[in-house]
Design a protein that fits this description.
single chain, 146 residues, alpha+beta, five-stranded antiparallel beta sheet, three-stranded mixed beta sheet, 2 helices, 16% helix, 34% strand, globular
């Protein structure tokens, strides 16, 4: 049970950190971007995404994005991304309360996912399972939130 609670806490903390990070300055031109198409089943709310480096995985996103969950897939766009190795975490915030909701024992009740469709066993996905290399231009990724 403690693994389930740990999993929800880490995912929730990472998603909350996504919401608290500051967006890019308005009017900034996006030259290097990463697009993440998040597939989900139930409409409504928002899809919230974070772009992470290894050192801040699920805790401190380099970039944050959100998209309305009116139709699947929702598109999260991260702009002006420097070259590097990253992972993406996302969740379907059905009730738009800006957090990953969990049940009484800490298991997420809202769908979530990561780049490469990485999944954890009794915990959050590992960065090494979600990581991808980014050089420049536009990189398009997709994942399933479940």
């Amino acid at each position: 049970m403690s693994n389930l609670i740990s999993r929800a806490w880490i995912l929730g903390a990472g998603c909350l950190a996504v919401l608290c990070s500051s967006p890019l300055a308005a009017g900034a031109e996006a030259k290097n971007r990463i697009e993440f198409r998040a597939h989900f089943e139930e409409r409504g709310g928002s899809v919230r995404c974070g772009l992470f480096q290894r050192s801040g995985w699920l805790k401190k996103p380099l970039r944050a994005a959100a998209a309305p969950a009116n139709a699947s897939p929702a598109l999260c766009v991260f702009e002006n991304v420097p070259p590097g190795t990253y992972g993406i975490s996302a969740f379907h915030d059905r009730n738009d309360n800006e957090k990953l909701d969990t049940n009484l024992i800490g298991v997420p009740v809202e769908d979530y996912g990561a780049s490469n469709n990485a999944r954890g066993v009794f915990g959050p996905p590992k960065f090494d399972d979600a990581r991808f290399a980014y050089k420049e231009g536009t990189k398009r990724l997709q994942g399933t939130l479940d």
